[in-house]
Amino acid sequence: MQPDLHCRTLAAHTLKHFRALSPLTHCMTNDVVQTFTANTLLALGASPAMVIDPVEARPFAAIANALLVNVGTFQRLAG
What is its EC number (predicted)? Predict the structure, then answer.
């Protein structure tokens, strides 16, 4: 079976476009993966920002080019 070259071409084109944009990415992640997420986005060419404070999050969301949400270890707060 031959590999799907269209898929590779599309992925390469998408990555090139992504790097050219260097999107300011608003990341709302759990503490476990913040460093991994930031490093991955930096390696891809994005500008990650871990903004989770409610006072800062709203105005930052207005200027961000992208939003990444990861609640993999989401838990309900007591109270």
Answer: 2.7.1.50
